[in-house]
Amino acid sequence: MMLWFYLAIIAYALNSIAFVVDKHLLSVPVLRPISYAFWVGILSLVAVVLLPMGVYWVSFYYFLVAFVSGGMFFFGLIFLYKAIKKTDVSVASTKVGVLGVVFTYIFSVLILKDYFSNLDVFGLGFMVAGILLIGKTGKGVWREALVAGMGFGISTVLLKLTFNNSTFLNGFFWTRMGLVGVSFLVLIHPSTRKEIFSSLKNSPHSSRFIFITNKIIAGVGFGLLYVAIKLGNVSIVNALLGVQFVFIFLFALIFRNKIPGIAENLRGVIILEKIVGMIFVGIGLLMLFK
């Protein structure tokens, strides 16, 4: 099997850990999705260490594409965290992830000029059926999931476009600068600025340490994912996130009621609906990864 396949699996395993910890941190009242997304974005400043490693200016158009990719990623983060805060982490992550795949396919056709096969359409149909089942098990987060999925879909396709027109390091750096730039832009709004700095002042020191450690884990995961996207097919790499859903579900089960904020709903038929929904998603992913 190709290297990018294994890198994607490892990346999704690390990201699943990050999602579960995100759920724990977002259970703290002082941490709201916008402030959480802001600090995630600001941590991307560490990408400046790449400057002496081959980062260069391509063109204003390239910069604009990279900036929009990073900005849409930030936009997706806000609504992902809204979904995670409202419902079970397995439900939120699966809905957002599947819709991210759907929108990635749509924008791959529109922007990268990829195409759908009949099997792709059936695969996407199974995935949508799966998230409809999973969607019955938690609080309604369809609006958040749709917006987050669209944001991540656009971001991923534009990221691949930057990789196609430059080196991996260059594309990674400029898209991270887009994420940082949009993060700073939200400070223009007075109430948002107040909320963000209040979260820093009032959050416990232990939460800050967990947050930074968790974002290092997530950063490594996303870094490996970007390498996989660079080496492989953007849609297939996204399709492999079915493995991430399984990891998240298992971690949520293991740490359920052991870590504050992790309270996966397993009552009655709900657990069956989650499992069947994930099986449908898995079938859809297998059709896409043909």
Automatic annotation (TrEMBL):
According to the lineage, what is the superkingdom?
A: Bacteria
Transmembrane portions of the chain: 6-22, 34-54, 60-84, 96-115, 121-138, 145-163, 169-188, 209-229, 235-256, 268-289
Q: Which segments constitute the EamA domain?
A: 3-134
> In the UniProt record, does the keyword Isomerase occur?
no
**Gene3D superfamilies documented for this protein:** 1.10.3730.20
> What does the UniProt keyword field contain?
Membrane, Transmembrane, Transmembrane helix
GO-annotated cellular components: membrane
Task: Specify the protein name.
Answer: EamA domain-containing protein
